[in-house]
Design brief:
Helix 9 runs parallel beside helix 11 (217-230) and helix 14 (313-326) packs across helix 15. The chain is of the alpha/beta class. It has two domains: 3-166, Rossmann fold; 172-387, 3-Layer(aba) Sandwich (Rossmann fold). The strands form two sheets. It has a four-stranded parallel beta sheet, with helices on both faces. The radius of gyration is 20 Å and the shape is globular. The protein has helices spanning 17-22, 24-37, 52-57, 73-76, 86-97, 101-105, 116-125, 143-164, 170-192, 203-208, 217-230, 258-265, 293-302, 313-326, 340-357, 373-387; strands at residues 42-45, 61-64, 108-112, 131-134, 243-249, 268-273, 330-336, 361-366. Strand 3 (108-112), helix 7 (116-125) and strand 4 form a beta-alpha-beta unit.
């Protein structure tokens, strides 16, 4: 397996669930390879708006393909502009190099039309990848937009049925919904451990407790084991005195956790991550008892409060809820350079955090290069001076 796709080795103190997820990439590779050998399709996704339930109901393996490595960016810049979001460039770099084993084994890649950079990158990928473009309407409160979204999921369902040669019955979709609800519920409970005054995990450890492939029973068993082992536990005494941080903004793909590491290396404790790699996609479940299961799936995903939505009041509502529940001392808003939607939305988030939540706020704009790590650390330390309880 390419080195840039390998998981970091488990730290010496890690045991049990942390050790299991420390080799997450290897686990997922073994799972996907075995599934392929059994004739199951591997379906790549590039955003949280793609319902994994549909892929699972079709008998497929849903795997996240978002790039988090700076090493693949130079290859991407042969085709893509340098002043583009690093997540897009990293993902495309894997495509150019053929160095992401999950992308190479994918029978289909679902391409969600979120930001403009991704949409145009998909056109280049489609020159040699089987792609299905999933059009995301971007007015979350518009009934007509929602109906269009439902029709898009109908089209995706048909594409998956054509891929497998089998229809997706309601029984299979309901089972997939129940599986994903179970996974989301377990991950929510793990995230809620961070509400404690002295949580048993760091933010970095919590972020590691997830997988690129959803619906694996081995992962669910490890989530349950982690909950059993951590119930009632507290962290070391020094952790209780750290500055509690609510981290919002862009997703941190596997390998792109640098800013989180910086925050926790200078005295912070990230008690909640609002982003797509944090709690945003796991806050709500799908109604498994609905008469129209596809519409129920559509409703859950359509209301994810991403910055591509307009207006995106849902993000502010979620931030208020998380601030009340996780009691942060400050908010850090992370934006990847050239991520225009998160860049522009930062102004509203800043004003909301300062005026409504009454919390110190810091915006960090960076890419995957570590060249500005020292500068970010200094800015975070300065924020903490104003946020000490």
């Amino acid at each position: 397996m390419p080195a840039c796709c390998s998981s970091a080795p488990a730290p010496a103190e890690a045991a049990g669930p942390l050790a299991h997820f420390a080799r997450m990439i290897e686990n997922c590779y073994e799972y996907a390879a075995a599934a392929k050998a059994q004739g199951r399709p591997v379906v790549g996704i590039l955003c949280e708006y793609t319902p994994r339930e549909l892929i699972l109901a079709a008998g497929g393996v849903p795997v996240c393909l978002c790039g988090g490595s700076a090493a693949t960016i130079p290859a991407a810049e042969e085709d893509l502009p340098a002043n583009l979001c690093p997540l897009i460039k990293s993902t495309y770099g894997y495509h150019v190099q053929g160095s992401n084993p999950f992308l190479e084994m994918a029978d289909l890649v679902v391409a969600e039309t979120t930001c403009d950079g991704k949409k145009k990158m998909y056109e280049l990928m489609a020159q040699r990848r089987p792609m299905h473009v999933l059009e995301l309407p971007q007015k979350p409160d518009d009934a007509v937009a929602f109906e269009h979204w439902v029709s898009e999921l109908v089209s995706l369902k048909r594409r998956l049925e054509a891929l497998t040669g089998r229809e997706i019955p309601d029984s299979a979709l309901r089972a997939a919904i129940e599986l994903m609800n179970r996974e989301r519920g377990l991950r929510r409970r793990l995230a809620e451990l961070m509400k404690a005054d002295n949580p048993p995990l760091t933010g970095r450890q919590l972020l590691a407790l997830k997988s690129s492939i959803s619906g694996q029973e081995t992962d669910l068993a490890q989530y349950e084991r982690a909950l059993a082992e951590l119930a009632g536990q507290t962290g070391p005494c020094e952790r209780a005195g750290r500055t509690r941080v609510l981290l919002t903004g862009v997703p941190m793909a596997h390998g792109a956790e640098r800013v989180l590491d910086i925050i926790e290396s200078v005295g912070g404790l990230v008690v909640c991550m609002e982003s797509c790699t944090g709690v945003k996609p796991i806050m709500e479940d799908v109604d498994a008892g609905a008469n129209d299961l596809l519409r129920a799936v559509a409703a859950k995903y359509f209301h994810l409060p991403c910055s591509v939505m307009t207006p995106n009041m849902g993000r502010l509502e979620l931030l208020e809820r998380l601030a009340n529940e996780y009691r942060p001392h400050c908010v850090i808003d992370l934006a990847w350079q050239a991520c225009l939607t998160y860049d522009v939305e930062s102004a509203r988030v800043r004003d909301f955090v300062r005026e409504e939540l009454r919390l110190p706020y810091l915006r960090v704009s960076t890419d995957y290069s570590p060249s500005d790590s020292a500068r970010i650390a200094v800015r975070v330390e300065a924020l903490f001076e104003t946020a000490r309880p």
